[in-house]
Design goal:
- The structure is a single chain.
- By secondary structure, the chain is an alpha+beta fold.
- The chain has a single domain, classed as Outer membrane efflux proteins (OEP).
- The chain contains ten helices and four strands, in the order H-H-H-H-E-E-H-H-H-H-E-E-H-H.
- The chain has helices spanning 3-8, 16-26, 28-42, 44-47, 90-156, 162-196, 221-231, 234-255, 289-358, 364-399; strands at residues 54-60, 76-85, 261-270, 273-283.
- It has a four-stranded antiparallel β-sheet, with no helix packed on it.
- Helix 5 packs antiparallel against helix 8.
- It is elongated.
- GO terms for molecular function: efflux transmembrane transporter activity.
- Belongs to the outer membrane factor (OMF) (TC 1.B.17) family.
- Pfam families: OEP.
Length: 403
């Protein structure tokens, strides 16, 4: 992709859709796999085509005293055209092998696209999370500023120690240092997202317009496993296609036991006139049975390998799905608990502590602890949402929900 075209494309980052669109349109790995799939598809037609015919010319009776290669200057010239014909359905089987291999290449591209889309979604979730974590720290710093102002006023009235204001300043400074670290982490996640999208590490990204949404494709793990079994992962389908190609190749090698036919026609020229014609029929003699048996064994072993790989992949994908599903459910339950219970409680506790501090019923340390508990719960909620979305992206990649 030309740099000017990349520069003209919309900047990704506003939402997940923009990230997916950019990756599918510009990722070089997907372009390479698409080209390979196209190349495999282009091999289908030639695989079942007839061999090229062969033209021959035979010159006889060349005068040694006046040698010439012109047909009119020799005693006889024979013109021949030969064509071999694979028999017993060999052309159709060869085309079937190539077609199944082309299907496998196309499915490899789909599997790679799923994996890359899931990685892009997860990178985008981390990018969004880092931005939101900075926003939470900014709110906490602002609240500490208000608390410092309250402490300063109470100190001016002689009802609070100057230490309260200083503790608020120290806490703000500590949060500002954490904010710097979070900003560095946000830059790191931006570089990670650009890397998945095959962009420069410092390429600009749009700010997320809203929290990302990655819904689980089923309500239960059994439902997700059923989706995997019904729809099938492209990698599983690619293994099945390669096993089918190997089976067709076995049959093709078996039919190599039977001979192919060759047909030829010719014309006999003497001087400058045609004096006769000839028809030729030839038959291949399949003597190399040892080589054929080895080719059969190769095709059989390739089929066994493809089926074994498919079985291993089923087990691996099922395990990954179960793990990701458990992580998504656990993080979702934790997030809902924090949102519905801990956050309201922590906020109410902070507001009560602030009101009590204004009238001198609690000390500044209690107020500071209440703020840290409230904002800590907010960060914990944000971390749980991040983990939930990361796991959901993995589940969707396996079951087919990343489109």
């Amino acid at each position: 992709m030309a740099p000017t075209l990349l520069a003209a494309a919309p900047v990704p980052g506003a939402d997940l859709a923009s990230v997916r669109s950019w990756l599918l349109a510009h990722n070089p790995e997907l372009r390479a796999l698409q080209a390979e799939a196209g190349a495999a598809q282009a091999r289908v037609l030639p695989a079942g085509a007839l061999p090229d015919p062969m033209a021959e010319i035979e010159l006889m009776g060349i005068d040694p005293d006046r040698p010439s290669l012109l047909p009119a200057n020799v005693e006889t010239t024979t013109w021949r055209l030969r064509q071999s014909f694979p028999m017993w359905g060999k052309r159709g089987l060869a085309r079937d092998v190539a077609r199944r291999e082309a299907d496998a290449a196309s499915l490899d591209r789909e599997a790679a696209a799923r994996d890359l889309l899931a990685r892009a979604e997860q990178a985008y979730v981390r990018f969004w999370h880092a931005r939101e974590a900075v926003a939470v720290l900014d709110r906490q710093i602002e609240l500490l500023g208000r608390m410092e102002e309250v402490a300063r006023r109470r100190y001016a009235l002689g009802v609070a120690a100057q230490q309260d204001s200083i503790r608020a300043q120290v806490a703000r400074t500590g949060l500002q240092g954490e904010r710097i670290a979070r900003l560095a982490g946000r830059d790191e996640t931006a570089a990670m997202l650009n890397a998945v999208l095959a962009r420069r590490a410092d390429a600009p990204l749009a700010e997320p317009a809203a929290p990302p949404v990655l819904a689980l494709p089923a309500d239960t793990l059994d439902g997700a496993l059923a989706l995997l079994a019904d729809a099938g992962h492209p990698a599983l389908q690619a293994s099945a296609a390669r096993a089918g190609a190997a089976d067709a190749a076995i049959e093709l090698q078996r039919r190599a036991r039977y001979p192919d036919l060759g047909l030829g026609i010719g014309a006999l020229q003497r001087q400058d006139r045609v004096e006769g014609y000839e028809v030729m029929l030839s038959v291949d003699i399949p003597l190399q049975q040892g080589a054929r048996r080895e080719r059969e064994r190769e095709a059989r072993l390739r089929g066994d390998a493809a089926r074994a790989r498919s079985d291993a992949l089923v087990a691996e994908l099922s395990g990954q799905l179960g793990q990701a599903w458990s992580q998504a459910r656990g993080a979702g339950d934790q997030r809902r608990l924090i949102e519905r219970t801990l956050m309201p409680q922590a906020q109410a506790n902070f507001e009560s502590a602030l009101a009590s501090y204004r009238v001198g019923e609690v000390d500044f340390g209690t107020l500071l602890e209440a703020l840290e508990a409230w904002q800590g719960a907010d960060l914990a909620r944000l971390d749980a949402r991040r983990d939930e979305l990361l796991a959901a992206a993995a589940v969707r990649a396996i079951t087919g929900g990343v489109q």
